[in-house]
Design goal:
Blueprint (H helix, E strand, L loop, with lengths): L6 E3 L2 E4 L3 E5 L8 E4 L2 E9 L2 E6 L12 E3 L5 E4 L7 E2 L15 E4 L16 E2 L4 H4 L4 E2 L3 E6 L5 H11 L4 E9 L1 H14 L5 E7 L10 H15 L3 E7 L1 H14 L13 H9 L3 E2 L8 E9 L8 H9 L2 E8 L4 E4 L5 E2 L14 H23 L6 H18 L7 H15 L2 H4 L3 H7 L3
Parallel strand pairs: 9-15, 13-18, 13-19, 14-15, 14-16, 16-18
Antiparallel strand pairs: 1-7, 2-3, 3-6, 4-5, 4-7, 5-6, 8-10, 11-12, 17-18, 19-20, 19-21
Length: 441
């Protein structure tokens, strides 16, 4: 039922598949409305001409439908009651629990002023050795996970949620299948970690345009815990390709001219306003942080597509999943993955030998790749080539595979044991003092 102060109109001037337009006054950008009872949002204002995006589509809406403006943008009630709960794209509980009581905050606010930021310098250990050894993450970093659609990237995200050393994990799921949704729910419940995880979920059964709300909902919750509670927050978003596809659907239905790969021309700024929410606050204002890991699935492995291309340009590196046929497992590819901030913590917040072990292992892995090429082309292999191939197989299985769950000290010890198993100290090219201290006796 409409309230007295709400603006009500009944004359729609234009209707498309996803939007409707009308003349209205005193309406704000992003303001919510209902059109014939369906939830909608203001997406364009030109003079007194207002365009509304109808989340469930405009089918069945007549030109004399009742349009009620709600006087507010999408918002989320934030409090400690968010922890352990599952919500939809509107911030409403979908886990059968009670509504959350707390302060109501508009979603999609501006990113933090750079003056209030601190250079990231705190380690975020994910518990996945393939990330923590070669591509160490830093609190306040923004980094994508590039993966093919058939790879188990949601399993990786769930593993990160279980193992990461963070005070709160915020999951934003976009276009999840019901199986994926239940997988996350069961994994979190069975592991007994729900108390520090907040989940916002849009499934394939929900309208695609609702996905556009998920990142802002997740980041609004993250900002509450980072700013108000001074916590280290890790935001996991999956899948940003489906988010961008929803942007394209809306853009197309509003008759906007598409840009590269049928994406809207605003794709860069739409992605940037999400990724730029990553921040490390200085200690004097609490020292909280927001770190973002976001899955971007690749169509046919195409890294040049507009979505990964823009994503890689905005963010600070990328993590890349690849199936290793030698061991039959998915690994974090050390050649195509890159954390541009790892030098801020490797060897400083981790053990002193970390940078040298990382470099030596990747160099030996590269030598193994060269040996594999020689073998495939029928050339004879040297003793060193054979040892490199054996090392690479064990290194993939014991370090790079996504199911390897060891801490930063254990991963370094495993690497040293593999060096000692296949090579002489002079072959690994590590400082003598570190070899003396850590080489397996």
């Amino acid at each position: 039922m409409a309230k007295a102060f709400q603006k009500i109109y009944t004359q729609i001037t234009a209707i498309t598949k996803a939007t409707c337009s009308l003349k209205a006054e005193g309406v704000g950008n992003d303001e919510l409305a209902t059109v014939n009872g369906k939830l909608a949002q203001v997406v364009k204002i030109i003079g007194d001409e207002v365009t509304l995006q109808v989340f469930q589509g405009t089918e069945g809406i007549p030109t004399n439908a009742e349009v009620v403006f709600l006087g507010k943008a999408p918002s989320l009630k934030v409090s400690d009651q968010l922890a352990g709960r599952f919500f939809n794209a509107y911030g409403e509980p979908i886990d059968g629990g009670p509504a959350v009581e707390g302060k109501e905050i508009e979603i999609g606010g501006p990113s933090v002023n750079p003056v209030r930021r601190k250079q990231p310098s705190e380690l975020i250990a994910t518990g996945i050795a393939g990330i923590d050894l070669n591509n160490t993450l830093v609190s306040g970093q923004k980094i994508p996970f590039f993966a093919d659609p058939d790879q188990p990237y949601n399993q990786v995200m769930a593993n990160v949620a279980l193992r990461a050393e963070a005070d709160k994990i915020i999951l934003g799921g976009m276009g999840l299948t019901n199986d994926d949704y239940l997988y996350f729910k069961n994994v979190f419940s069975n592991a007994g970690v729900l108390d520090h995880i907040v989940s916002f979920v849009n499934t394939t059964e929900n309208p695609p345009v609702e996905r556009l709300l998920i990142p802002d909902m997740a980041l609004t919750a993250a900002e509450y815990f980072a700013v108000e509670k001074h916590e280290k927050v890790l935001v996991l978003l999956t899948d940003m390709t489906l988010y961008a596809d929803a942007l394209a659907i809306v853009s197309n239905r509003m008759d906007q001219i598409p840009s590269k790969d049928s994406m809207p021309g605003s794709l860069y700024s739409d992605l940037a306003k999400i990724y730029e929410k990553a921040v490390q606050f200085p200690e004097e204002i609490g020292g909280g942080s927001i770190t973002i890991i976001a899955v971007t699935t690749l169509s046919g492995g195409d890294i040049t597509h507009a979505i990964p291309d823009n994503t890689g340009y905005i963010t600070e590196g990328q993590l890349y999943l690849r199936r290793d046929s030698e061991i039959g497992k998915v690994i974090v590819d050390p050649f195509r993955s890159l954390s541009r901030l790892k030098q801020l913590v490797a060897g400083k917040k981790t053990r002193e030998d970390h940078p040298q072990v990382m470099n030596a292992a990747v160099r030996l892995y590269a030598d193994a790749a060269n040996a594999k090429t020689k073998k495939e082309n029928g050339f004879d292999l040297t003793d060193y080539d054979i040892r490199c191939l054996d090392f690479a197989r064990d290194y993939s299985r014991e370090i790079l595979a996504i199911d390897v769950n060891i801490n930063t000290v254990q991963m370094l010890d495993v690497a040293w044991s593999l060096f000692g198993k296949y090579f002489k100290p002079e072959e690994v090219n590590i400082k003598a003092a570190l070899v003396e201290k850590y080489w397996p006796k």
